Amino acid sequence: MTIPRFYPLGTPGQAWGPAEVQQWRARQVRQRSYADDVLSAMEQLRAQWEVESYGEVIYVDAAQSEERFPLMALRSRSWSSALPTVLLTGGVHGYETSGVHGALRFAAKHASAYAGRVNLLLAPCVSPWAYERIQRWNFDALDPNRSFRADCPAQESAALIRLVAPLLGKFAAHIDLHETTDTDESEYRPAVAARDGKAFEPGVIPDGFYLVDDTANPQPAFQQAILQAVERVTHIAPADAQGGLIGTPLEAPGVIAYDVRSWGLCTGITGARYTSITEVYPDSPRANPEQCNVAQVAAVCAALDFVITASP
């Protein structure tokens, strides 16, 4: 079978090797600063949070030029074993901007309302190299959100797994903040097909907010509580012509589900009863970046309210 060329790297029908990965990496341009946007914002929260390092990402390119990114988390000061524990992650895909800034906004402006009611652990920017390049993949052309597994190949994902390991069995919930953007269809999915030596099959980007549940542990009431809060901020994505979203059947309006562990998704790492992946759509004519940040905060607050109410 002849696979037509769509992405401008590699040979159609052949998976990339190191040379193609290097060529792809050379195309990535630093467009914003992790230090300025994320680390500086976290530093300003020291009065409210414990700010801690949970590792470092180190990348060395073909010219032996090295980049280092400290990985930082926020932890509740009023931590108590009697309270439910919740993990909040953003920036697992660095280009999904509202995941990062929504998490930071929640930490700065809303988390104080939950002090003494829930333990919070926040990793607002899991993938800093990709954040700076506005890219989904990491330096090695790997998707961190397919890498959360025992043989984890991505530095960013492995570091987060190590962060949560001492708390396994104690998490009540994990909310992972994401976006679905038009570049998924124009850049990322064609790049995946080229990297893996497969044909690109065009899809449709959902116009609106939706959630991803876990097929192995469905929590429909939890997902509905989040949707009800978010729909006051932005619109919920309607089903596509096939009655689903991004090629996946609906579990309920605005909700699809994956087997998160087998896919290597971030929400599979805690063993929490309640998990959800948020997906906002910043490129919608009915939304804007500020609205997306607010929607992410609304989702987090609704999730926490649900967990607190449901906890004994």
What is the element layout, followed by pairings?
Elements: H1 18-26, H2 34-43, E1 49-60, E2 66-76, E3 85-90, H3 97-109, E4 119-123, H4 128-133, H5 155-164, E5 171-179, H6 183-195, E6 210-214, H7 220-230, E7 244-245, E8 248-249, E9 255-258, H8 260-263, E10 274-280, H9 289-310
Parallel strand pairs: 3-4, 3-5, 5-10, 6-9
Antiparallel strand pairs: 1-2, 2-4, 6-10, 7-8
Helix pairs in contact: 3-9, 7-9
The CATH superfamily title:
Zn peptidases
Strands across the major sheet, in which order?
Answer: 1-2-4-3-5-10-6-9
**Approximate strand percentage:** 15-25%
Shape: globular
CATH class: Alpha Beta
Q: What's the architecture, going by CATH?
A: 3-Layer(aba) Sandwich
Quaternary structure state of the chains depicted: single chain
Number of domains: 1
The CA-CA distance between the termini, in Å, is: 58 Å
Query: Strand tally, please?
Result: 10
**Low-pLDDT segments, ≥5 res:** none
Helix residue percentage? 25-40%
* Biggest sheet character: 8 strands, mixed
Please give the count of helices: 9
Mean pLDDT: 95
Summarize the structure.
This protein is α/β, with parallel strands linked by helices. It has helices at residues 18-26, 34-43, 97-109, 128-133, 155-164, 183-195, 220-230, 260-263, 289-310, and strands at 49-60, 66-76, 85-90, 119-123, 171-179, 210-214, 244-245, 248-249, 255-258, 274-280. It is 31% helix and 20% strand.
